[in-house]
Write a structure and sequence with these properties.
By secondary structure, the chain is of the alpha+beta class. 56% of the residues lie in helices and 18% in strands. This is Adenylate/guanylate cyclase.
């Protein structure tokens, strides 16, 4: 007299969710119990109750005709919901269950509310309402069932006795128990299926996350983030933007590559790229590519803090890279690499074309334009340890970074000579109150950034400096 609440395809309220779950479950391994089977079981149980009641004389003989209706209705309902326009109706299962509640309530009223058979039919209805539609469906089902019950009771009147014979009562309870047990079993199976699907979906999600993190190693974090959050489509498209472009390479790397074994050279280069990449990401730079010993980074896309801040972040990154190179050089020297490797850098700011270049099946997120060529030219003109910037960059950073005029150069693509400047240091780090100090000689190297030193580290550094000073004084006295 009602539909089974265990069709997995309708277990999720959202179409997208149901599609995901269906894709994870083997329908052969966990067979669903569709509405048709559940309704057939319920109405067959009701037909058995009617047959027993008529033959025991508690139901009128004309109710034998209801047996045919009880055995026919599930097939009619199946045709209506699967092969007619009703199949497109939203929440069709809940609507058909309301019809079942109307029929069930009318039947209970027609038999005069005989206790055990009436309770059995009402239990099957309420059980289905709660599982299929929850409390809301239970309320609606109860209202419609009660209404049809009173209508039937008004037409046929109450039974002479509300007590049913023993056989009819036992049969009613067995039929109801069988229906509840069967539907509960399939509900349990479907619940297990949903849990398995949830577990599989979670595993696939974790695998996808792990894979995406692996793929992110081949993309700049900003680009990867914009793609995986849906902010940027993966298609061939470009746009014009004003960016700060950075180029660097290692002076003396070619000579070093002739002296070192390929394995050791690869380890050194990876160590260098790793350290410089950390600095670039710290300042929000988009790492474009590594070519040989060169690094290309740009600021202003896919995220930007404004032209002035982008340029300042780019030059700040270059200054820290220059400082970081001193630390790396000391480490390489301790490993037996005596060639004095120096980094040289060039920075320009201007409008470039940025976006995805290439083919539909192989893209590269990069930038092109004359400003890119200018940054590369500045890098090639820089002396070891020098940072050269264009006039556009200088005009954006000069309030916070000290620069020295280096004259003009002629660059292909520019109609006039281009003024260039050498970056000296942060203005805050110049003068007697500067936070950064460095000295490097044969057998001695010192790199000090007082702003980054904690109180605990400060004492250890002072102790080490005092020990070093005492040692030098002792050797001086001996001489």
């Amino acid at each position: 007299m009602m539909s089974a609440p265990v069709d997995l395809r309708n277990a999720s309220s959202g179409a997208g969710k149901s599609t995901t779950v269906d894709a994870q479950i083997d329908p052969v391994a966990i067979p669903p119990m569709p509405d048709y089977n559940g309704r057939t079981l319920a109405y067959t149980a009701t037909a058995a109750i009617i047959t027993s009641g008529v033959f025991q004389g508690i139901f009128p003989d004309w109710m034998l005709w209801l047996i045919a209706g009880a055995l026919t209705w599930p097939h009619i309902a199946h045709i209506l919901t699967r092969r007619t326009f009703l199949r497109h109706s939203p929440r069709i299962r809940q609507k058909m269950l309301i019809v079942d509640c109307l029929i069930g309530g009318g039947f209970v009223g027609a038999i005069g509310v005989v206790a055990i058979p009436s309770v059995s039919v009402m239990l099957m209805l309420m059980f289905s309402c709660l599982i299929i539609g929850g409390f809301r469906q239970w309320v609606f089902g109860s209202v419609f069932m009660t209404a049809s019950l009173f209508i039937g009771l008004a037409i046929f009147g109450p039974a002479e006795s509300f007590q049913a014979p023993l056989i009819t009562s036992i049969l009613s309870l067995l039929a109801t128990g069988l229906y509840i047990c069967v539907t509960a079993f399939y509900s349990h199976q479907q619940a297990r299926a949903l849990m398995m699907a949830k577990t599989q979906i979670q595993n696939q999600r974790e695998q996808s996350i792990a894979l995406s993190h692996k793929l992110s190693k081949y993309l700049s974090p900003q680009v990867w983030q914009s793609i995986f959050t849906g902010e940027r489509d993966v298609r061939l498209e470009t746009q014009r933007k004003k960016l700060a472009i950075f180029f660097s390479d290692i002076k003396g790397f070619t000579e070093l590559s002739e002296e070192m074994e390929p394995e050791a050279l690869t380890e050194l280069l990876n160590h260098y790229f790793n350290g410089m990449s950390e600095v670039a990401l710290k300042y929000g730079g988009t790492i474009d590519k590594f070519v040989g010993d060169s690094i290309m980074v740009f600021f202003g896309d896919p995220t930007s803090r404004g032209q002035r801040e982008d340029a300042f972040a780019c030059v700040s990154m270059a200054i820290e890279m220059r400082k970081h190179m001193k630390i790396m050089r000391q480490k390489w020297r301790s490993q037996g690499i005596k060639t004095p490797l120096e980094i040289r850098m060039g920075i320009s700011t201007g409008y470039t074309t940025v976006g995805n270049f290439g083919a539909e099946n192989r893209m590269d997120y990069t930038i092109i334009g004359k400003e890119v060529n200018l940054a590369s030219r500045l890098e090639s003109l820089a002396d070891p340890g020098e940072i050269l910037v264009s006039y556009e960059t200088f005009s954006l950073i000069k309030d916070r970074i000290m620069c020295r005029d280096k004259g003009e150069i002629t660059v292909k693509g520019f109609g006039k000579p281009v003024p260039i400047y050498e970056v000296v240091d942060f203005r805050r780090d110049m003068g007697p109150n500067r936070s950064f100090l460095e000295h490097e000689h044969s057998g001695f190297a010192m790199y000090l950034d007082s702003e980054k030193i904690s109180e605990r580290e400060r004492q250890a550094i002072l102790t080490a400096l005092e020990d070093a000073a005492d040692r030098l004084r002792q050797e001086e006295e001996i001489r």
